[in-house]
Specification:
Layout lengths: L1 E6 L5 H10 L3 E4 L1 H9 L4 E3 H5 L14 H8 L16 E5 L15 H11 L5 E3 L5 H11 L4 H27 L9 E6 L9 E5 L11 E4 L5 H14 L6 E6 L2 E7 L3 H11 L1 H4 L2 E5 L5 H8 L3 E6 L6 H4 L5 E4 L8 E6 L2 E6 L8 E4 L4 H14 L7 E5 L2 E6 L5 H14 L8 E4 L7 H9 L3 E4 L6 H10 L3 E4 L8
Parallel strand pairs: 1-2, 1-4, 2-3, 4-5, 11-12, 12-13, 19-20, 20-21
Antiparallel strand pairs: 6-7, 8-13, 9-10, 9-11, 14-15, 16-21, 17-18, 17-19
Helix pairs in contact: 4-5, 5-7, 14-15
Amino acid sequence: MRVLVSVHDKSGLAEFAQGLAGLGAELVASGGTAAFLEEHGLEVTSVEELTEVPELLGGRVKTLHPRVHAAILARHEDDLSEHSIEPFDLVCVNLYPFESDPGVELVDVGGPAMLRGAAKNFARVVAVSRPDQYDQVLAELREGGEVAEETRRRLAAEAFAATARYDTAIAAWLAGRERLGLVFERERQLAYGENPHQRAAYYVEPGKPHLLSGVEQLHGRELSFNNLNDLAGAVRLARELDGPACVIVKHANPCGVAVADTVEQAYERALGADPVSAYGGVVVLTRQVTAPLGEALARQFVEVLLAPGYETLAPLAAKPNVRILAGALAPVDELDLKRVPGGLLVQDADVSEDELEPVCGEPTEAQRADLEFAWTVCKHVASNAIVLAKDGRTIGIGAGQMSRVDAVRIAVEKAREHGHELAGAVLASDAFFPFADGPRLALEAGVAAIVQPGGSKRDEEVVAAVREAGAAMAFTDRRHFRH
């Protein structure tokens, strides 16, 4: 067996190469890779020795030679002996990390060419493009002396995917926003989509952190499409909250959110915000789950639970269906993408930090804190969105309504339904009030302070209604629709 190795990521390479050498393989490697393998006691032929041409142009040209590419592309029936060229049986190449560190000098030319050649010739050559493929390749070689055709075909597909992703990243970097290169790889198959008749899977951008990066599932059934969608919404909101916090999401909308001195208090207050809607929800906590909190959670029907860690799993593990996840909150995406027929709507992620500018009245220190909290939550509620909050927790949420005044009405009714005191509460609206009817409805219920973007033709009328009620109002000059 003859093997060509040229890699940037050398994790696991020494063990892989030692395994190949133990099977009698002849190793040929490019400059830095050859030096690495020699440092680990392996006998290696350098590409320079093979081609009898030194590296040129500061290393830009080293593998672009017939003794390399003819050896990769040769088929079983091709005779290269008259050119003194021996074919390669396995090509192990991974590419410069262009996506994380773009630049002209990191545009790999020889690497993709070798990988594509090996993948094209998968009927005879094994194309290895990632360290996580090493173990299976070695196992098959040790067991049967060759890599199965099905495996070679799959490795070839993964190699072409790697070069496609690489070229896409380069094209996007050169073209800027004129060209959006997106490559996703399937992370897992899902049982079904939003509904049982829809097929579904979870795809991630290779090399980038994602929703489940660094997250371990400790217990429970497999995650579903709706679980992941709700978890994403809960994580985005939880990232914006300081201190011990709890976010409960149901059908992609927050139904209970709270911050408190302890995570136990945060959960109790978030659940109490709307315990009916929280049934079967996704719960995200920003602190470790203590034993008492685990017992409290076990008394509820929770679909998915994510926390940094768990003091004990005993109470929760007694419930077979709850999906228990441990890990960090995923980072915020740079771009927000929405599929439309034949295309994509692309925008920057909504990660702005807004200043609250009083336009009438003067909220107390506690009310100002609640206004900031309610405004943060409101960004993550489907528009038209109204959030009522008091003492660091939501007490009523009106989500996804066609009429803003209906959203206010629903939020007020929910607060009353669950016995929350509205006197002294605050209200956040994701966009301006076109009329004074919405604020009046909230003010009559006891709301003492309101935050909204402002910008309506009737701002003066709305402000006058708030002033007349003896309440306070702040503008942010920025709306936060979420559709």
